[in-house]
Amino acid sequence: MTGETPCGGRAYRRSPHLVLYWQDEALVVHNYATRRTVPAPPVLLTLLERFGNWCDVASYLETVPAESRETLAAFVERLAGDGWLWSREQPPSHIDVALADWGVWNPAAGFFHAATKDTEFIALEDSIAHLADQAKSWPMPATGKHYEGAARIPLERAPRGDRYTDVLFERRTWRQFGSTPLPLRELATLLDCSAGVQDWVVADGEGRVPLKTSPSGGARHPIEVYVAVRHVDGLTPGVYHYASESHALERLKDGAPAFDDLLPTQWWYRDAAALVLFTAVFERTRWRYHSPRAYRAVLIEAGHVCQTFCLTATSLGLAPFCSMAVADSVVEQLLAIDGVSESVLYVAGVGTRAPLSEGTRPGMLPPVAVPRA
């Protein structure tokens, strides 16, 4: 082909963050860096294959019929603009670079991580109605599993009245909170017992690594803790980072965020004294474990730390809770983290206990109906 092509001498290559799968009857391509999904007709697949490595657009257009060149040139530009192709003239986005750092964790862990962010949460009244309707055709599964005919050996129940079991059996998710501020010393105890560094050891091939109250694969401890403070005695409302190695709070922002914004549809937590935001710095775990299976370990470790937090709060006579109804991107913007190299995974919270009216339990919703925002 002679003369100037519609795309000049620009070069592109396919984004490395693409996966193909069948969605009902259609084959789709999903970009887990941009979190976009589009149908994958043959023309798109052919073009993405052609741009598997850096390819000059002019060279590509020489391989197609002359009457199709203008259309395909525009198509290439559109794919580049939407992130399906990377341009040699423009650096990839920060998210693309951060995901590329995941290396062999991709595509399995990268796809799962991105595809499960920023889900849409259903209001409580809508969820109840949906489940009631669903149960008509899909009954709720059994709550336990049994093997009929297997020999059964009865076991003694754990002792009650024991210091440990009392805490364990008392742990509940609280949804009502007292007006008394949370004492700073109790917040300090919560953070120390759940996320603080308790000791250091030297690991072969790694050097000095921290020990905490929860287990962590290879003692990598990827979980970081932030605290959104609303009503803690001795602390200015705001957002803090917990420095686990020095057992100190680092103030990042003044002013408590609206807890409703961080936990959409979970209005019953708005009066808690503080939210505790658990994030993961994935590089710590990726450095040691090169299989995407290690992503599971990071998720589990967030659960370890959160459960320790809730049990510690229970032992202190406080009102803890935890929630997965997290507005991921809202939280990550608040914390100024990118959601890939460091991402929020879980949220807990705590307040002082409110007196419970007769017939109510900690996990019950407050008796006042709150309309949707």
Structure description:
The protein is α+β, with helices and mostly antiparallel strands and 373 residues long. The chain folds into two domains: 11-92, Outer Surface Protein A, domain 3 (Alpha-Beta Complex); 162-351, NADH Oxidase, CATH 3.40.109. 31% of the residues lie in helices and 22% in strands. The protein has twelve helices and 16 strands. The strands form five sheets. The chain has a six-stranded antiparallel beta sheet with strand order 13-12-10-14-16-15, with helices on both faces. It starts with 10 loop residues before the first strand and ends in a 22-residue tail after the last strand. The relative contact order is 0.12. Residues 1-7 and 368-373 have low confidence and may be disordered.
Brief summary of the model shown:
The protein has helices at residues 42-50, 57-61, 69-81, 94-100, 108-115, 124-137, 163-170, 184-195, 259-262, 282-288, 294-315, 328-335, and strands at 11-14, 18-23, 26-31, 36-39, 55-56, 85-87, 182-183, 199-203, 207-211, 223-229, 232-233, 238-243, 248-254, 274-281, 319-323, 342-351.
What is the fold's blueprint, element by element?
Elements: E1 11-14, E2 18-23, E3 26-31, E4 36-39, H1 42-50, E5 55-56, H2 57-61, H3 69-81, E6 85-87, H4 94-100, H5 108-115, H6 124-137, H7 163-170, E7 182-183, H8 184-195, E8 199-203, E9 207-211, E10 223-229, E11 232-233, E12 238-243, E13 248-254, H9 259-262, E14 274-281, H10 282-288, H11 294-315, E15 319-323, H12 328-335, E16 342-351
Parallel strand pairs: 7-11
Antiparallel strand pairs: 1-5, 1-6, 2-3, 3-4, 8-9, 10-12, 10-14, 12-13, 14-16, 15-16
Helix pairs in contact: 8-11
